[in-house]
Design a protein that fits this description.
Blueprint lengths: L4 H41 L3 H13 L6 H11 L1
């Protein structure tokens, strides 16, 4: 199959856009992974149960943490 010059350029642009989006997603993933590692490290070092409870409440209120029934329901909604 032979592409015209315009079709070839359009194909290159589409490929470049896909690669750019993938790069952005990879950067976001790496950032999130780093944040999760920091959070887990912080949680692991908390000795006071009141601090653990406060952290859990903060995570729950921010919708980062869900109860297991909420998590199962949201997984069902995705199907």
């Amino acid at each position: 199959m032979v592409l015209t010059y315009d079709a070839y350029n359009e194909t290159l642009e589409i490929q470049k856009e896909k690669e750019d989006r993938l790069t952005i997603i990879e950067k976001q993933f790496n950032t999130m992974q780093s944040q999760i590692q920091s959070l887990l490290s912080s949680l692991g070092s908390i000795q006071d149960q009141n601090q653990v409870n406060q952290m859990a409440k903060t995570l729950y209120d921010s919708k980062i943490l869900q109860t297991s029934s909420q998590s199962l329901k949201s997984d069902d909604d995705k199907l």
